[in-house]
From TrEMBL:
Source organism, top-level taxon: Bacteria
This protein's record includes keyword Manganese: no
Name of the molecule in the record: Amidinotransferase
Keyword Mitochondrion: no
Gene Ontology molecular function: transferase activity
Pfam families: DDAH_eukar
Organism field: Flavobacterium rhamnosiphilum
Stretch forming the signal peptide: none
PANTHER family noted in UniProt: AMIDINOTRANSFERASE
Amino acid sequence: MKQTTNSILMIRPVAFRMNEQTAVNNYYQKVVDGLLPATVNAKAQQEFDAFVEKLTAVGVDVTVVEDTLNPDTPDSIFPNNWISFHENGDVALYPMFAENRREERREDILDILEDKGFVINNIVDYTSAEEDGFFLEGTGSLLLDRTNAKAYCALSPRADEELFIEFCEDFDYAPVIFEAFQTVDSERKLIYHTNVMMCLGETFAVICSDCIDDKKERKMVLENLKENGKEVILITEAQMNNFAGNMLEVRGANDKRYLVMSAAAHQSLTPKQIEQLEKHAEILSSSLDTIEACGGGSARCMMAEIFLPRN
């Protein structure tokens, strides 16, 4: 199994704003004062377009789908939470915590991918868990080490343990389960998505291990990464708050590896960390300030990796 892909899906926003329904447990979202919703969306679109341009310029195959005004989906720019694509042609659909995010699941997106020559064999649908109040938000909640068949998950209101184990059984992954916390108003609170505190590359892992308060769990997670030969690059909680954990390794032209992140994440890294990362992949960063502030997500969240076979 490949760990990285050249193909990604991105959704261009039409009504992007701070989502009041996700702000209850996404402590990264901020109210940007004095900006009209139309201005916020226009800024997000500018950031989105510049980001896509940077990716395509290095040869990443980006499928951009325009969002629709109806239904109202302020977070549609983060498709990796509701869908994942797998090498055997499976597509997984995930149960979402926020009711207005459930509307992001669009069947026509699968048609668009099939029109591009991607092969979809089977849909594994976990969305009925929403009715019982259980959630698992795609590759926000699940970090997949595809090559070593391991899945990492920081449990939270958006990542249910039983659902995660069910996913691992269905897709043949060994589960690595832990809890990760961040300090919010001097209280330790669960981090809402695993992919803000951790990134898995082919030959490295970026992780804020300080978030794993339980020492045994922390040791277990780090040992799992090391036994699969990953160079572990530690980041601080302050760096994580600048989205330095929210990175994704992709492949560009000639199979060249790129580590994609936001400008804020890039600026938060030390010269030593940059040197460590650049041994593995070239860094590609783009300014996502509005998207990060209002959406509480960053570069990783905006890219749904496509591993599907092609005709």
